[in-house]
Amino acid sequence: MPLKAVLFDFNGVVLDDERIHQQIILEMIDREDLRPSLEELQQHCLGRTDRACFQDLFASQGQPLKPLQLRRLLSMKAKAYRQYLESLETLPIFEGLIELVEQLLQAGMKLAIVSGALRAEVRMTLNRTDLEAAFPITVTSEDVKKSKPDPSGYQLAIKRLNRKFPALNLAPCDCLAIEDSFAGIQAAKLAQIPVLGVAHTFPFHMLQRQANWCVDYLHQIELDRIQAIFDQ
Question: Given 34, 55, 87, which residue is the final one in a domain?
Fold first, then answer.
């Protein structure tokens, strides 16, 4: 089957902001007197929603969050992240992203975002980088009940693409997911979608063990080669 759609993760694939998230979360949980290791922080937070991150971080430290406390942390985190991005003259999108998006669109692909980020954060970034028209479908944390590695975000993206483009007749095997985290790779695979891992966050050799294909940088993606594999 030909490749028809490419589904992008957001944080760590489109926007180079994983360190921003990590620093904000570290500062917040330090004030809550939590001291998780870097490995624990990555395990519970990378590629996942802020809600899942905070819930699992606190639970791992033996301090389950009460609903009011969780809402307070989520509000503080969203505000701090938004203020940081708004202070930047230019958003830190990854090198090669614009060129890759243009190449995919010229090849007739449909594009979507599948992310654990907030809808406002994704929309602000797409608007400021003139990429809104390129991504007619966005699935964010408000759209699904469970965080990656749950596959529901990817499954919903396919449903929405088929609703918007009925002639596409899109199936999971017609898609390619681009992910930078283990949770994201697992989510795509559970949705039966082949995955290309990009080593923006974890080393190449670690992602290579889980993804169908792996590159160090977006500009290394060889679309012709991937399309040939799908055509087989």
Answer: 87
